[in-house]
Description:
Strand order of the largest sheet: 6-7-8-3-9-10
Helix content: 25-40%
Family: Belongs to the ABC transporter superfamily.
Number of domains: 2
Largest sheet: 6 strands, mixed
CATH class of the largest domain: Alpha Beta
Keywords: ATP-binding, Cell membrane, Membrane, Nucleotide-binding, Transport
GO cellular component, one term: plasma membrane
Number of strands: 10
Subcellular location: Cell inner membrane
InterPro entries: AAA+_ATPase, ABC_Ni/Peptide_Import, ABC_transporter-like_ATP-bd, P-loop_NTPase
Strand content: 25-35%
Amino acid sequence: MIEKKKDGSTVLSVKDLRVSFNIENQTVEALKGISFDIYRKEIVALVGESGSGKSVTCYSILKLLPVYASVSGQITLWHPEKIENLLSLPEQSIRKIRGRHISMIFQEPSAVLDPLMRVGDQIVETVMAHRKVSYSEAKKIAMEAMEKARIPEVERRFYQYPHELSGGLKQRVVIASGIVNNPIILLADEPTTALDVTVSAQILKLFKSLRDNTDVSILLITHDLGVVAEIADRVLVIYRGEIVEEGDVFSIFDSPEHPYTKKLLSSRPVLKDVI
């Protein structure tokens, strides 16, 4: 484990997290005792191939795993009210944290947004679920979040439905909904996978802006090392449910130590002999 950043305080600490799934009388280990910390105002990339345990880590933090999952360990959140072990909280308490102190951004915005509801009202709904404000005040807060997410023509977009927006704009709406309550942590699960290269670059630029201009920390789940190189401060490499290497982005790319990390880096496409 690398030393704690001198300019950051811990906002989330995962210790010995173990997750297994009991399926058809068989036990499948998904996470085998992973531990890591996330500090204030940083972007941490959790990198690994499909099935390595990246998304399970995210869902564990928000207690969104299915009932046939067995979970042990400790996930500690530092937020303004108190310090809490998320795994020990009842459902009613964790609901107050989801969307308020920790928000999740999924890779496919169309699967998250309600097709029958105006996108602005969906953000308003997130506000009113956690704050005792009027609709007009919630709308003002929602529109400010849309501006932070760099959605153009906010007044017009507020009243549109998801099918009227491009993939990039829908993802920005999801991000706006994620940041509207000023969370401590954003969990971004492959947030650029469904987007083209140009729009992906814009979304990554937005994440960097959020890190730089707010107090939010971001746990970025990805298999794309290009994304990691672009925005991550630190990198966690996960392989078969275990974190096999951790370091700042420069050391991981310049001098990887674990064979799996080296294999990941060597698998990057390289353009050669381009005329």
